[in-house]
Amino acid sequence: MKLITLSVLLILLLSACSTTSNSSIPSIEDPSLELISIKDHYKKQLSSIKVGDYINEIKEKFPALTLASDNMKNTIYEVNFEQAYQLKHSDTAEKIQTYQQKIAFYFINKKLVHWQVK
Asked: What keywords are assigned to this protein (predicted)?
């Protein structure tokens, strides 16, 4: 009898944990409209950069910056932002999907000349 009671409690506990972990994942219809944009997520950092900043200054503000291309004097770094979501009305509604955005920073002679969201 104790074994059955413990088994039932364990099953209830596991089902509660699995429900709780998915509750933080939004259920949406259109990820590009309903999720946080990368510009909003990095709003503070983006507002503090300017054309002419050196690569090291940008790296301080974006620690997850990765090298995308290095062509002697032209260099591109990127920072990625991923968000998990589930589609509301779909045959894959239970499947957790990922919405990815990135910002590309373009440098010439190690100085920022442009950035854009991709």
From this structure: Signal
Closest CA to 83 of 94, 96, 66, 70: 96
Helix (H, G, I), strand (E, B) or coil at 94: coil
pTM here? 0.71
- Dihedral of alpha carbons 51, 53, 54, 57, sign: negative
Q: How far is CA 89 from CA 29, 97, 108, in A?
A: 7, 14, 46
Specify whether the CB–CB gap between 38 and 101 falls below 8 A. Answer: yes
- pLDDT tens-digit profile of 77-105? 999 999 998 888 766 657 888 889 999 99
- List the domains of the chain with CATH numbers: 25-117 (3.30.1450)
